[in-house]
Amino acid sequence: MPSDAAAPLGQPQSGDRQYGNISESSTEPVVAEEGKSNILLQAWFYLGAAGLVGALIGWAIAEPFFVDGEGRGWTNLLLMPAVAGFMCLGFGIAESLVERSTKKALTRGVLALILGVVGGFIFDIIADILFKIFVTIIVSLGVQTTHNPGFWIARGLAWMVFGVAGGVIYGLVDRSGKKVRYGILGGIIGAGLGGTIFDPIAIATHAGAPSRAIGFSLLGMATGVAMGIVESALKDRWMYVASGPLAGKQFILYKPVTVLGSSQQNDIYLFKDPSILPQHATIELRGAQTFLNAAGPVFVSGQPVRNRALRNGDLIQVGRYAFHFREKQR
Asked: What is the rounded CA–CA span in Å between residue 286 and residue 300?
């Protein structure tokens, strides 16, 4: 084992900024507990903000070409794909930016934008078909005006497909099937709510462009917030950052193998610590069990380890970072 493994916890190099440490002689580690998380590191917050900003940018790009009322042209077809594309761009890069991985954000952003715009055209057609079907149904039930809540619900149901698009692309850029499923469920909930309030906003503002700006922004925000809440509620195994630059963030273990290290392409990017290797350790899911495999110095509950089955509540230290391993009790 490398010599630096013998100097674990609570023995920083001179001049290093400290984010908390674990002392071998202490039974009470100085680390953050769950429940004291920074709101900026919460998935529902940064995905909601990303969806709002992305949808607003998409609207701003397409709005100058949009024609209200009669004489609508083909340029009106650009609005929803632009909103969907930039909303997906926001979802694709938000987590990487929070984790300060600019390289990962760039590659994910390009992929998310392309898939979002292409998917936006496809899902716009599907949403339009569904909307016409739902309107036909509610009209047959006696609804005659857009001021009727039945009309709002019809739009909300139709626009759920944009939530599906956001959830699918959110998971695809991270190459995670489980993240796709969580994203779809959250996207359906959020986009349904956003679509339902779209017409009331238009009625309240009495103007086309402002109502679309507010409506699409809330659509993006609601979709992102719901995606973040759903994935947090349904997670079964995760790593909560107890100390380090990202203290307060949780990393949900979606993949069969999660890589930790100083490379920006890792699933968990550990920056600002020269003692951490590019691929320092992996966390492997094998059925109901979770295994840690270390290539560099790693300590679990103060003891150096190379390979270990993790248990709920284990405290893991990699350099200046400390994590609580958590799993949902079955």
From this structure: 19
Residue ranges of alpha helices (H) inside 141-262 are: 149-172, 177-196, 198-205, 208-234
- Cα distance between residue 48 and residue 56, in whole Å: 12
pLDDT of residue 17: 39
Spacing of C-alpha 217 from chain mean position: 17
291 within 8 A of 309, measured Cβ to Cβ: yes
d(CA 160, CA 26): 52
**Residue 9 near residue 302, CB atoms below 8 Å:** yes
Q: Return the residue matching tokens 């238009």.
A: 202
**Partners of residue 294 on adjacent β-strands:** 281
Tell me what pLDDT residue 145 has: 86
pLDDT of residue 13: 40
Percent of residues in the chain assigned helix, strand, coil, to nearest 5: 50, 15, 30
Rounded-to-integer distance, Cα 255 and Cα 268, Å: 12
Rg (Cα) of the chain, in Å, rounded? 23
Tell me the residue type at 256. P
Whether the CB-CB separation of 113 and 89 falls below 8 Å is answered with yes
Token pair for 61: 């790009």
**Residue type (1 letter), 303:** Q
Average pLDDT by stretches of 10, the chain with 330 residues: 41 39 39 64 94 95 81 76 93 92 93 92 93 94 89 93 91 89 93 91 81 89 94 93 90 94 94 94 95 96 94 94 89
Q: Fill in the amino acid letter for 90.
A: G
E strand map for the chain? 237-243, 250-252, 257-261, 268-269, 281-286, 289-300, 303-309, 315-318, 321-327
SS3 category, 125: helix
CA geometry: angle 28, 32, 38, nearest 5 deg: 170
Question: CA 91 to CA 190: how far, in whole Å?
Answer: 13
